[in-house]
Amino acid sequence: MNYNMNIFMSDRTFTLDEAQLLLPVLESLLRTSIDGKKLIESVDEEFQELAHRIFLSGGLHVNIVHMARRKAEREKAIQRVKDAMAEIDAIGVQVKDLDIGLLDFPCDVEGQTILLCWKLGETGITHWHGTHEGFAGRKPIDERISKSRRTH
Question: Which of 20, 63, 102, 143 is the most exposed place for a label (fewest CB within 10 A)?
Fold first, then answer.
């Protein structure tokens, strides 16, 4: 599953203050998504290892109840991840990289759209980049951005 999302582009923009206020909710949603993704990957790995052991041995006695439980856990995790990601998208925030918890907040500064950039573990939003630059192009937030207010 690839959750590096940028497919749902919202027209919503945020001021720096608005984006900062959303961080606790978004952090919770991100952690739910990341934990779910890890569980999905763990179950997938467990199933692949089992299939490999069965192949190598020509057959095994499999604990069907355990494997069915793990499959159900995986299905529930998929739904949790989908729900959390949909909620982030509905807010208007872009998930750029789920593995590291990277979010972008569209922000209008002097008629130009930039992206406020935040990564899980950072205490606040301190960087931004242009819409075509990505994480590597992050720059510190300057006064022009911090003082930017909603125009409509």
Answer: 143
pLDDT digit of tens for each residue in the chain (152 aa)? 444 444 445 578 999 999 999 999 999 999 999 999 999 999 999 999 998 988 888 777 888 999 999 999 999 999 999 999 999 999 999 999 999 999 999 999 988 899 999 999 999 999 999 888 888 889 999 888 887 776 55
Q: What is the pTM of this model?
A: 0.81
- Domain annotation covers residue 10: no
The token duo for 86 is: 């949909």
Q: Is residue 6 part of a domain?
A: no
102, β-bridge pairs:
97, 119
Range of the domain at 137: 16-146
Distance, CA of 56 to CA of 109 (rounded, Å): 60
The DSSP H or E segment spanning 91 is: helix 64-91
For residue 111, is it within any domain? yes
Is 1 a member of any domain?
no
